[in-house]
Design goal:
The structure holds 2 protein chains of 2 kinds. By secondary structure, chain A is mainly alpha-helical. In chain A, helix 3 packs across helix 8 and helix 5 crosses helix 9. Chain B is rod-shaped and about 105 Å long. The chains are: A mainly alpha, B mainly alpha. Chains A and B meet through helix 1, helix 2, helix 5, helix 6 and helix 9 of A and helix 2, helix 4 and helix 5 of B.
Chain lengths: ~180, ~200
């Protein structure tokens, strides 16, 4: 039990980050993380050393989030309505956004933009940057082909950059109007 | 070479002189092989647009890595461990119950059979078929009682118990029953469940 508590302490925040990015609700995310740890506890003896523990564990969290999302049909529809953004991806990571990015502390805006990202992009972003998984490990967790993972990650970052540029520009405009 | 990279290089050859964003992003993510990464580095030294793009990608990466992890409630671990302990206790109780059910069935069937074939005449003589159905409860009850009594007698004889004091006989019977359950669990039920799983 003591060892398991250490395991929980080690992974709880990373799991919570993935769950919040996918579910956007702290209570739901915490419930999913708790259920995932219980599932891990029950099936630890089934865990085969062939996979990394982290990959196996994040797959459990990821699937639990997908199940939760599946239950929230309204949420699903809302996410799908964001698909239109993909059509504008081609040139969104242009130098103009870079110029804007250079000039400001972005922390607040990055977090806000992350919160508004579609779930499928947010999950790969989270797995790559916060759970620090490789592309191959993300494929194992999400069961998506490598090409899809790469595409999702590219689109996610491009969309993030576009949103950041828009947010910062509107921030500048409001500052310019009300100095 | 990756299809996108071929396109990227062909765009360069066509005089567009820029690598694709996908290609540049893969360079930032260190997905390119060493030789290809060198080519991209060389291109970046001469191309301001692509160098700016890579700088933007790297800055976004830096900013993303600066975002702190989300945190669970302070008492999360304690709460979780309590839930796990509770569920484990329920699990043990459920396992014991699950073990008792088949053992109980085996005991009752054995008791009925022993009662019918070895027990007193009243339990063994079914009489006419109509009477059997009318007094089925009584017949089975007598068979079970006499069967259990006979089984316990066999067990007492096997372990050499000669006391006739009811309290001691009952206590020993209980202990023997628990040992029997444990043996059944260990050598019959668990191996069967393992095979099924």
């Amino acid at each position: 039990m003591g060892h398991f508590a250490q395991l929980v302490d080690r992974y709880k925040d990373k799991a919570m980050t993935l769950a919040i990015r996918m579910l956007r609700n702290k209570e739901d995310a915490e419930e999913v993380v708790q259920d995932s740890f219980i599932r891990v506890f029950k099936s630890l003896n089934k865990f085969e050393g062939a996979a990394k523990f982290s990959t196996w564990f994040y797959r459990i969290v990821y699937n639990a989030c997908l199940t939760k999302i599946g239950r929230r049909k309204d949420e699903f529809q809302r996410l799908n309505s964001l698909d239109g953004d993909e059509r504008e991806l081609e040139d969104m990571a242009g130098p103009s956004s870079h110029a804007v990015l250079e000039s400001k502390d972005l922390f607040f805006f990055v977090r806000k933009a992350l919160e508004e990202m579609p779930e499928r992009y947010n999950s790969v972003l989270s797995l790559f940057y916060f759970q620090e998984l490789s592309y191959q490990e993300i494929c194992e967790v999400t069961r998506l082909p490598l090409g899809t993972v790469k595409a999702h990650l590219f689109r996610a970052r491009a969309l993030l950059q576009k949103r950041l540029a828009e947010d910062l520009q509107s921030e500048y405009s409001s500052h310019a109007q009300n100095p | 070479m990756h299809k996108i990279h071929e396109e990227s290089i062909s765009r360069m050859n066509e005089g567009m002189n820029h690598l694709t964003n996908v290609h540049l992003q893969e360079h930032v993510d260190r997905l390119l092989e060493a030789a290809e990464a060198k080519e991209v580095e060389a291109h970046l030294r001469d191309c301001e647009r692509c160098a700016n793009m890579v700088a933007a990608f790297r800055q976004l990466e830096t900013e993303l890595r600066r975002v702190p992890l989300e945190t669970v409630s302070n008492d999360f671990t304690n709460r979780l461990m309590r839930v796990i302990r509770l569920r484990s206790s329920f699990g043990i109780a459920r396992d014991v119950l699950m073990n008792l059910i088949p053992l109980g069935i085996v005991l009752i069937v054995s008791a009925v059979l022993i009662g019918i074939f070895v027990g007193p005449q009243s339990a063994r003589t079914p009489g006419k078929s109509s009477e059997v159905f009318e007094s089925l409860n009584q017949q089975v009850g007598e068979a079970v009682t006499s069967g259990i009594s006979i089984m316990l007698d066999w067990i007492y004889k096997a372990v050499g118990l000669s006391t006739t004091i009811p309290l001691i006989r009952d206590a020993v019977g209980l202990v023997l029953l628990i040992i029997l359950i444990k043996l059944f669990d260990e050598f019959v039920f668990i191996p069967i469940m393992r095979k099924r799983n």
